[in-house]
Structures are given as structure tokens and as C-alpha cells.
């Protein structure tokens, strides 16, 4: 098997190659030239035909900003792999853009997650690896084999290695994430608290109304969520928890999307630490943000097909 990357997260693909080479030195990164025509159309040229023809290939691409562009780019790479005679293709989507649009709220809306899943269910794609989706039902939208992985164990390892679990409680930032947070709290054998959060459907403004389930006074609050969008939830959640007496506020989310100047928002928050994965390549960073590396997780998922 060889690895090919779209333009969204080349660093993760390179790290995956290095991890896989520890067991199989023959695995390498396929040279793929990605350019644009003057009319803004993408142009794909896979140069390493000998690494593709008759070979297993793994394509790594996050559907992050620019989302539509990265999705089209993925489809073009898949087509090029098929034309070069790839034996089979595994597709790793560390962050699946459109995954929040997983149901219809009003007549006339599209189920965008299903549309994207259908596009990625090519006859050449043997399997798709997904990571910490907002809704566990989304893998069912694909018509090829899907593997829904989680970064929870990587976060647990980080917390243990950095002595952040002593005198701590897990906090769900809203009722919608309570099930996800409960699984995480049980894994850590820690108490679970919940914040009553509301969001204005028109402005998107977040309000943290209160804390339920126990006291956080003098404790480390480990807030667990699937994604950080604009950072407003981090701001309001951290402010409430510090007001309730939390010693430290540690916000954990698999996906750091950071739209609307999200990095600046994180910097201005009262959170002491924001821990995310490298599912999305970050162009900006902050001293408050730390990362866990996903390459070992995806390498383990690919182990049976190398």
C-alpha cells in the first residue's frame, strides 16, 4: 500500500507514511501534483504511476475549508487513481465537512451529509475511515464499508501523561453531547456534569445558563465535545465554569474548525488548555492549543489491509 494526499492535510499524510514505514519500509507517499487552471478549476496529475498501477492506495483528505474545493479535489484524485489502474483505494476523511447537516429541519432542505457520502461511495473505494462524527448514523449514508474511529484514547493518554486527571470532573457543554461525554467520563472513571446551553437559531449566539450534576469548585473541569466551530462555546463554557470555582478548564474536541476568527476567540477565553487532534491542518495556532497526532490511529485502522 502507498499513500496519496489531497491538499487539505499533507502533514497528516506524511506522518501516516512515517508511522506505517515502521512496519513496512516499502510504503511511500505518491507524488500528486495539484494545481489550478486560470478559471479556478482544479487540475490533478499523479506522477508516480508505478506506485499506483495494480497497487493498494490510501487517500488522505479532510473536507475542511475550502470545503467544496477539497471535495471536488478528492473526486478528481479518485478518478485519476482509477484511470491509472489502482487495485483498490482506502479513503481517510479525518474531518468530514457537511457532517453537521445530517437531517432535515425544514421542508426543502437537503441532507448534505448523505449527498457527500454518496459522492464518496465510488466503486473503486473499498473502505472509508471517518473520525468522531457528530452523529453516529452518518456512516450508514455510505454504500461502501465504513469505519468510524475515535480519538478518545489519544486524549485519555494525553491527560494521563500530563497529570490532568487528579481532582477532575468531565463536563458536557450541552445536553446534546451528554451521551458522548458520559462515555468519556466512564472511560476515565470521573464524575460527569452538564451545562445547560442554548443557541439562538438566527444569530448563532451561545448562552451558558447553568451547571447541573454536582460542584466543580476547586476541581479541574474537562469539557468534552466533538468539534470547536467559532469558539463561542469555549468562551461561554469556560466563563461559567470559572465562575463556579473551577481550578482549571480543559476543553477537548477532536476537530478544531475555528471559523470566524476562532483562534482569537480561544485566546480571549478563560480556558486554560484547548486540546484537539490534527484532523484539520491549522494555519494559525495559540499557546493555549495543544494537539494529539492521529497518524497512529489511522495506521492501526489500515493494518489489516497493508
Q: Write down the overall mean pLDDT.
A: 94
Order the strands across the largest sheet as they lie in space: 10-9-8-11-12-13-14
Q: What structural category arises from helix and sheet content? A: alpha/beta
Q: What's the CATH class label of the largest domain?
A: Alpha Beta
Roughly what fraction of the amino acids lie in strands?
25-35%
Number of domains: 2
Provide the gyration radius in Å.
Answer: 20 Å
CATH architecture of the largest domain: 3-Layer(aba) Sandwich
Could you tell me the CATH topology label of the largest domain. Rossmann fold
Q: How would you spell out the order of helices and strands?
A: EHEEEHEHEEHEHEEEHEHEEH
Enumerate the spans where pLDDT stays under 50 for 5 or more consecutive residues: none
Which percent range fits the helix content? 25-40%
Main β-sheet, in a few words? 7 strands, mixed
- Distance between the ends: 5 Å
Number of strands: 14
Shape: globular
What is the subunit arrangement here? single chain
> How many alpha or pi helices?
8
What order do the helices and strands come in, and which of them pair?
Layout: E1 2-5, H1 10-21, E2 32-36, E3 42-46, E4 56-60, H2 67-83, E5 88-93, H3 112-119, E6 125-131, E7 145-149, H4 152-161, E8 168-172, H5 178-188, E9 192-199, E10 206-212, E11 220-228, H6 232-243, E12 248-256, H7 262-268, E13 273-277, E14 289-292, H8 295-302
Parallel strand pairs: 1-4, 4-5, 5-6, 6-7, 8-9, 8-11, 11-12, 12-13, 13-14
Antiparallel strand pairs: 2-3, 9-10
Helix pairs in contact: 1-8
Amino acid at each position: 500500500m502507498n499513500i496519496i494526499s489531497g491538499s487539505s492535510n499533507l502533514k497528516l499524510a506524511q506522518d501516516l507514511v512515517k508511522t506505517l514505514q515502521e512496519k513496512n519500509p516499502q510504503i511511500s507517499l505518491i507524488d500528486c501534483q495539484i494545481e489550478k487552471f486560470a478559471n479556478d478549476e482544479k487540475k490533478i496529475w499523479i506522477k508516480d504511476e508505478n506506485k499506483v498501477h495494480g497497487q493498494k492506495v490510501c487517500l488522505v483528505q479532510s473536507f475542511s475549508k475550502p470545503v467544496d474545493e477539497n471535495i471536488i479535489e478528492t473526486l478528481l484524485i479518485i478518478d485519476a487513481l482509477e484511470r491509472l489502474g489502482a487495485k483498490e483505494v482506502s479513503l481517510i476523511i479525518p474531518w468530514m465537512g457537511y457532517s453537521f447537516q445530517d437531517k432535515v429541519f425544514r421542508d426543502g432542505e437537503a441532507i448534505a451529509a448523505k449527498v457527500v457520502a454518496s459522492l464518496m461511495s465510488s466503486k473503486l473505494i473499498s473502505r472509508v475511515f471517518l473520525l468522531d462524527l457528530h452523529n453516529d448514523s452518518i456512516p450508514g449514508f455510505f454504500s461502501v464499508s465504513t469505519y468510524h474511529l475515535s480519538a478518545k484514547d489519544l486524549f485519555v493518554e494525553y491527560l494521563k501523561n500530563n497529570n490532568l486527571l487528579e481532582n477532575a470532573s468531565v463536563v458536557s457543554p450541552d445536553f446534546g453531547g451528554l451521551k458522548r461525554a458520559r462515555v468519556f467520563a466512564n472511560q476515565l472513571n470521573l464524575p460527569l456534569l452538564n451545562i445547560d446551553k442554548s443557541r439562538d437559531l438566527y444569530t448563532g449566539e451561545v448562552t451558558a445558563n447553568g451547571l447541573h450534576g454536582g460542584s466543580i469548585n476547586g476541581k479541574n473541569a474537562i469539557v468534552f465535545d466533538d468539534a470547536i466551530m467559532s469558539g463561542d462555546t469555549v468562551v461561554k463554557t469556560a466563563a461559567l465554569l470559572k465562575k463556579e470555582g473551577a481550578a482549571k478548564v480543559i476543553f477537548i474536541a477532536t476537530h478544531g474548525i475555528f471559523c470566524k476568527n476562532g483562534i482569537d476567540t480561544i485566546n480571549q477565553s478563560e480556558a486554560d488548555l484547548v486540546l484537539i487532534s490534527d484532523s484539520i491542518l491549522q494555519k494559525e495556532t495559540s499557546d493555549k492549543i495543544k494537539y494529539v497526532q492521529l497518524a497512529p490511529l489511522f495506521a492501526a485502522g489500515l493494518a489489516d489491509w497493508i
